[in-house]
Specification:
354 residues, alpha+beta, Phosphorylase Kinase, domain 1, Aminoglycoside 3'-phosphotransferase, Chain: A, domain 2, 2 domains, five-stranded antiparallel beta sheet, three-stranded antiparallel beta sheet, 10 helices, binds 2-acetamido-2-deoxy-1-O-phosphono-alpha-D-glucopyranose, binds magnesium ion
Length: 354
């Protein structure tokens, strides 16, 4: 069998095949294991066994230090969605009957069942995919409106607190620990030029016109799986950041990820355009999925959410670049600056679109 030993960020060597054996899959070896996806945070593997396929993930402890709390949210949300008849991720417990396994190096791992005959959208979506994905996120939010108390844990406090993200950006700019600010002047000016947008959603939440709800908080197009047969959405995935927040951020992330014609790190900006038809489908699908839950102010801010979230994301990429890339995985120096440049270009297009 091929060796899949991998090094974690601290240099600890782990063998995911051995980790997989800690879970109650009911599957004896052999295991076919391959890296999966393009997440910026966790490490993900597809594991093929005689008892079916599974998704094994190492939870990035630098970003999610409290795996128990994260998995508590995960279990509560998936149990509730399942009780409403919504297809969701199926957690496979460890042999000890708990929701994650901690390896000898201290990293937390979890396992979910792979959903057969599903795939994520590759490249820009079709209008139908955009509609279905947005509807699925709306349905997700609607069904979580009556999740029993207590309030979900805030896994990353202030995750979409954009005014606080701005302060983080300003602090990184001021400190400029890697002397990178001079090489990023245009991007810095573009982020600062739109800083007035930062408080809009936060203020609306503070005054109560935009309610706190359970938001997905990473509602990218990539985070839904489509049924390969019907083309409909089979499942909303990547539940790490499901926590209290505003679903305007979810809609904004959808626009940011689905209405752009290129990936968020595309460096040829001529390829980054905005597809208005997709925005229309996203809006229609999201409204339909949400049903009656949205307030008047949420509806009013919906068309602006794409701009707000794209600005916030550009600011986050640029902050990480200025800090020396401690947060997002990068493949080369300058990757985060390229991402920020891409998102700022997208932002201009979204602003022009209205
Ligand atoms: C991160 O790893 P991934 O792709 O699921 C990030 C999101 C960003 C996104 C940018 C916990 O998500 O907030 O929108 O990158 N997740 C976290 O594509 O920071
Ligand atoms: Mg994510």
């Amino acid at each position: 069998m091929k060796s899949h030993r991998v090094k974690d960020p601290r240099g600890q060597v782990t063998n995911p095949v051995e980790i997989l054996a800690q879970f109650a899959t009911g599957a004896p070896p052999p295991v076919q294991l391959s890296p999966l996806g393009s997440g910026h945070i966790n490490d993900t593997y597809l594991a093929g066994t005689d008892a079916g396929c599974f998704i094994l993930q190492r939870i990035n402890g630098a970003i999610f230090p409290d795996a128990a709390t994260l998995m508590d949210n995960f279990s509560r949300v998936t149990t509730h969605l399942r009780s409403k008849g919504v297809t969701t991720l199926e957690l496979i417990p460890t042999l000890d009957g708990v929701s994650f396994h901690r390896d000898t190096g201290g990293d937390a791992w979890r396992l979910v069942r792979h959903l057969e005959n599903t795939r994520s959208a590759t490249g820009p979506p079709t209008p139908q995919q955009a509609h279905c994905a947005a509807e699925a996120y709306g349905v997700f939010a609607r069904h979580l409106c009556d999740l029993p108390q207590p309030r979900l844990h805030e896994i990353i406090p202030g995750f979409h607190d954009t005014p606080r993200r701005l302060l983080d950006f300003l602090a990184a700019l001021e400190a400029d620990p890697e002397n990178r600010a001079d090489g990023a002047r245009d991007e810095i000016d573009a982020v600062l030029g739109n800083r007035d947008w930062c408080p809009v959603i936060a203020e609306a939440m503070a005054e109560g016109s935009v309610p706190e709800r359970i938001a997905h908080n990473d509602a990218k197009l990539d985070n839904v799986l489509f049924d390969t047969g019907t083309g409909k959405v089979a499942c909303v995935i990547d539940l790490d950041t499901v926590m209290p927040g505003s679903i305007l951020h979810d809609f904004g992330d959808l626009v940011r990820s689905a209405a752009a014609t290129a990936a968020e790190d595309e460096t040829d900006l001529n390829r980054v355009a905005v597809d208005q038809r997709i925005i229309d489908c996203l809006t229609e699908g999201f409204l339909r999925g949400c049903g009656e839950i949205l307030t008047a102010r949420e509806r009013e801010l919906l068309p602006l959410a794409g701009k707000f979230v794209t600005h916030e994301q550009a600011m986050r990429f640029l902050t990480d670049y200025l800090r020396g890339d401690p947060y997002y995985k990068i493949t080369h120096t300058g990757h985060n600056l390229e991402r920020a440049r891409n998102q700022l270009h997208l932002l201009e297009l979204l602003a022009d679109a209205g």
